[in-house]
Amino acid sequence: MRGEDMMSKPSLSPGFTLIELIVAVSILSILCGLAVPLAAHTMKREKERILRNNLREIREAIDRYEEGSMQGQFFKAPSYGYPPNLEALITGVEVRNGYKLRLLREIPVDPMTGDRDWGIRSMEDDPESDSWDGGPVWDVYSRSEAIGLDGTKYRDW
Fold it and tell me: What is the rounded distance in angstroms from the CA atom of residue 79 to the CA atom of residue 41?
């Protein structure tokens, strides 16, 4: 008889009610909404870190080129001691013992623009100008017009 009593009573199936599902989806939506801006901020910070490193790498190569030129280590001393272009840092310059000194393996990518086209300044260029006079490379900058997390333009870094 006991078996028949259990069969006649409707049993409740375990699961979620509609209200529980709505609450769960709402909480999940709020958490995802908070995570998206945080992820975008983190990605921008990482791009800025890469930009700083790439600028430092190019500028150190320019400085090493200038230092070697001023110390007379190059077979043919370039003018002003600075490289004529960024490609000279890759192709290298002949040093006195017959070897080529290559200061970069490749031109790093500007993470803000996604290409290897850096802004170039010579010593005679106006720091606010976007045009390069074709003189020896004294400095590089990002061509991005975006503003960094610190409030300055990337091109001013």
Answer: 44
